[in-house]
Amino acid sequence: GDNQIVLKRAFRAPPELVFDCYTTPELVSRWMTGPEGWHFDTCEIDLRPGGHYRYVWRGPDDVLMGMRGTYHEIMRPRRLVSSEIFDEGFGMGRMLVSLALAGDEDNTTVEQTILFESRAERDAAIATGMAEGMGMSLDSLERLLVELL
Questions:
Q1: Can you give 5-74 as a three-state secondary structure string?
Q2: For the stretch 93-122, what's the b/e string if a residue is b when 16 or more beta carbons lie within 10 angstroms of its beta carbon?
Q3: Are 119 and 136 in contact (CB under 8 A)?
């Protein structure tokens, strides 16, 4: 669509473990690191409807990139919906993020839909390299899942 990004990825792991990797601070901070030279500086998660989360990445030259959000829907281990926004200066506006997990005890398909308020904000997100950074993070998630199994 004009104002969304949809990412789909399959993992050889049960949905419960994949869901935990998206919602447990100790696990999130091990895979959602982004490009080379970046790491998680802050990972706070209050996993309940109306609960908030806060992520801050630290990059080269101590550049900080922060994001905060609010959980709207939590259906462990099948669905997670939240609104999120990056800190000032990133130009992507508010996003609605829906994460759907489908699968069995051995495999999970994750479909993440990011709905932006406008096409311009979606295009701004793409221009930041967001899709490539997310791809790198999902590669890290795959390695973490192998390690955890």
A1: EEEEEEECCCHHHHHHHHHCHHHHHHHCCCCCCCEEEEEEECCCCCCEEEEEEECHHHCEEEEEEEEEEE
A2: bebbbbbebebeeeebebebbbbbeeeebb
A3: no
Classify burial at 15, counting beta carbons within 10 Å of its beta carbon; exposed 0-12, middle 13-18, buried 19 or more: buried
What is the number of residues in the chain?
149
Instruction: Report the distance separating Cα 80 and Cα 71, nearest Å.
Output: 8
CA dist., res. 56 & res. 86, Å (int): 10
First to last CA, the chain: 36
- What is the reported pTM? 0.89
Q: In tens digits, what is the pLDDT along the chain, a chain of 149 residues?
A: 789 999 999 999 999 999 999 999 999 999 988 777 888 889 999 999 999 999 998 988 888 889 999 999 999 999 999 999 988 766 678 899 999 999 988 999 999 999 999 898 888 888 877 777 788 889 999 999 999 99
* Phi, psi angle pair for 146, to nearest 5°: -60, -45
For residue 74, the one-letter residue type is I
